[in-house]
Amino acid sequence: MKKLTRGSLAAPQDTTFDITAIAANQANVQVRFRYTDGGQAGRYWYLDDIVLYSNPDVGVSKLILPNYLGCAQSYGATETVTVQITNYSFEPITNIPVTCEITGGTTATLTGTYTGPLIPGGATANFTFPLL
Asked: How many Å is the Cα radius of gyration of the chain?
């Protein structure tokens, strides 16, 4: 259990808590916020933009290429596939394994590893799969 007071009404303060040592390898983790006002009649209780994440927290967020086709069109066997990767955590990350399952008229599994520059927390990067 961690008790901590940060900032004030006049000077709020952003705070990040790393609970890795407490939560590591636990199947169920709960976070509780408890407020005591020290006799101040319920003043100064402010929480905003709370985010819980497991680092790394990265995912494919968008298909960049190929563009969507009309009903009478079809993709070729050598289409370039590019996806957008989003880093949902706060820590910069690289060396991300990426997989794309293609189904329909053609079935294929594309795999690769994003090894480009670090993706800052909350940012995105594009990854193009190598051609089959």
From this structure: 22
* pLDDT tens, residue by residue, 65-85: 887 766 666 666 677 889 999
In tens, the pLDDT along 14-44 reads 777 777 777 777 778 888 877 776 676 666 6
Which tokens belong to 31? 């976070």
Per-residue confidence at 90, pLDDT binned at 50, 70, 90? Answer: confident
SS3 track for the chain: CCCCCCCCCCCCCCCCCCCHHHHCCCCCCCCCCCCCCCCCCCCCCCCCCCCCCCCCCEEEEEEEECCCCCCCCCCCCCCCCEEEEEECCCCCECCEEEEEEECCCCCEEEEEEECCCCECCCCEEEEECCCC
Give me the residue spans of the domains in the chain.
58-128
Report yes or no: 60 and 47 within 8 Å, Cβ to Cβ: no
Q: For CA atoms 84, 89, 91, 95, give the dihedral sign.
A: negative
Cβ-contact 81, 108 below 8 angstroms: no
